[in-house]
Design brief:
The protein has about 70 residues and is an alpha+beta fold. The protein contains one helix and four strands. The two termini are about 25 Å apart.
Length: about 70
């Protein structure tokens, strides 16, 4: 379960409850850069099991690439 809250420049989604993650959040920052709109996406996910950091990063990149492609 997550909660999405507005921020000064976008929104942040944080985990409220989960059996799968110790920590999970996403942040979308939307800003005018003078020539258009710049969107910055930051994320952090830590599963509730011992997993090598390299595997977490690789899977995060894979999921994000698909997410951004579908925008």
């Amino acid at each position: 379960e997550t909660r999405r809250c507005p921020t000064a420049h976008g929104w942040r989604e944080t985990m409220v409850a989960s059996n799968d993650f110790v920590e999970y959040w996403n942040e979308w920052i939307v800003e005018d850069d003078g020539d258009g709109t710049q969107i910055t996406f930051r994320t952090r996910s830590m599963p509730n099991v011992a997993v090598p950091e390299a595997l977490i990063q690789a899977e995060t990149r894979r999921v994000l690439a698909r997410l951004l492609h579908n925008l």
